[in-house]
């Protein structure tokens, strides 16, 4: 049994605002890194107790150098650093039996602790007409390799978003969202226990979770926050720019092309200034 963990930061236990996730923000960021490593270790420990033999962890936040490598459980291998073609799910392939998305958050435009989609330039992201956040986009990627995403951790609202896409997914809820930058957090010990319990439940129920099937070619549309970003993203050959909605769309042969093209467009769009 081989398990892939994509570990983001916004949905980690005890993290409520940007002071915990921004490398420039000082003491809380260093605490956030510890919380992130502790959440990952809770999942790894439970997975090993359950019988998982091999675990790969992809640090999936910002520069992707957040997890404290020296404190990560020695049974796990860590993918750290950037750039990576497929970003948060780099390294995931058909050799894995299951994936879990840890520390995830709701999509841009809806409530939830630190809700957003990929970066500040995306207003909405659609795949085959369905609006998705990071959870959905990455789960669609996992579907390419027939890997089921069997658990998500984060606040109570990402649990809802994930369950809508993957009914029956195990949800480790480590905090209740109070606002986009406030939450009622479980104590450390209870959060660890929740993560461990839901990890084991997810692995026990793995056969009931189907990999996410998505029709190909994939129709991907990115609605940008303003026209300047959309104009830059539309430089990508083969894209279609709908000026009325700041939306740039493209067709991808498979999920790898979907991910790489999205990243290329985001890199271009982030070069636009608001004024
Ligand atoms: Zn993040």
- Quaternary state, please? single chain
| Count of helical regions | 6
Report the CATH architecture of the largest domain.
3-Layer(aba) Sandwich
Widest β-sheet, arrangement of strands: 3-2-1-4-7-8-9
Dominant shape: globular
Summarize it.
With 275 residues, the protein is an alpha/beta fold. It has 6 helices and 12 strands.
Structure write-up:
The chain is 31% helix and 25% strand. With 275 residues, it is α/β, with parallel strands linked by helices. The protein folds into 2 domains: 196 residues, Rossmann fold; 52 residues, Gyrase A, domain 2 (2-Layer Sandwich). The strands form 2 sheets. The chain has a 7-stranded mixed beta sheet, sandwiched between helices. It has a 5-stranded antiparallel beta sheet with strand order 6-5-10-12-11. Strand 7, helix 3 and strand 8 form a beta-alpha-beta unit. The mean pLDDT is 97. The structure holds zinc ion. The site of zinc ion has 4 residues, from loops. One of its GO terms (molecular function) is metal ion binding. Pfam families: Peptidase_M55. Keywords: Aminopeptidase, Hydrolase, Metal-binding, Protease, Zinc. InterPro entries: DppA_N, Peptidase_M55, Peptidase_M55_sf. This is Aminopeptidase.
Topology:
Layout: E1 2-7, H1 27-50, E2 54-59, E3 76-79, E4 98-104, E5 122-127, E6 130-131, H2 134-144, E7 149-155, H3 156-165, E8 170-179, E9 182-185, H4 188-204, E10 218-224, H5 227-233, E11 240-242, E12 247-252, H6 255-269
Parallel strand pairs: 1-2, 1-4, 2-3, 4-7, 7-8
Antiparallel strand pairs: 5-6, 5-10, 8-9, 10-12, 11-12
Bound molecules: zinc ion.
């Amino acid at each position: 049994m081989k398990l892939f963990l994509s570990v983001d930061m916004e949905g980690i236990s005890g993290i409520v605002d940007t002071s915990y996730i921004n490398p420039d923000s000082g003491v809380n960021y260093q605490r956030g890194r510890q919380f992130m490593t502790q959440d990952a270790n809770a999942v790894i420990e439970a997975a090993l107790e359950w019988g998982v033999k091999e675990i790969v962890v992809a640090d999936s936040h910002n520069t992707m150098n957040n997890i404290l490598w020296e404190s990560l459980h020695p049974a796990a291998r860590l993918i750290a650093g950037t750039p990576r073609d497929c970003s948060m799910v780099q390294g995931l392939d058909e050799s894995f039996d299951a994936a879990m998305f840890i520390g995830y958050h709701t999509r841009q435009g809806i409530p939830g602790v630190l809700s957003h989609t990929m970066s500040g330039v995306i207003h909405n992201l659609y795949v085959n007409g369905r609006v998705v956040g990071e959870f959905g986009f990455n789960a669609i990627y996992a579907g390419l390799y027939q890997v089921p995403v069997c658990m998500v951790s984060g606040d109570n609202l990402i649990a809802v978003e994930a369950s809508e896409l993957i009914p029956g997914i195990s949800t480790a809820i480590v905090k209740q969202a109070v606002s986009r930058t406030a939450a009622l957090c479980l104590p450390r010990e209870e959060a660890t226990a929740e993560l461990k319990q839901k990890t084991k439940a997810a692995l026990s129920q793995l056969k009931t979770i189907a990999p996410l099937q998505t029709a190909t070619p994939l129709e991907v549309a990115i609605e940008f926050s303003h026209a300047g970003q959309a104009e830059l993203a539309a430089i990508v050959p083969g894209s279609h720019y709908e000026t009325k909605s700041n939306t740039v769309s493209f067709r991808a042969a498979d999920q790898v092309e979907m991910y790489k093209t999205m990243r290329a467009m985001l890199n271009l769009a982030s070069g636009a200034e608001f004024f």
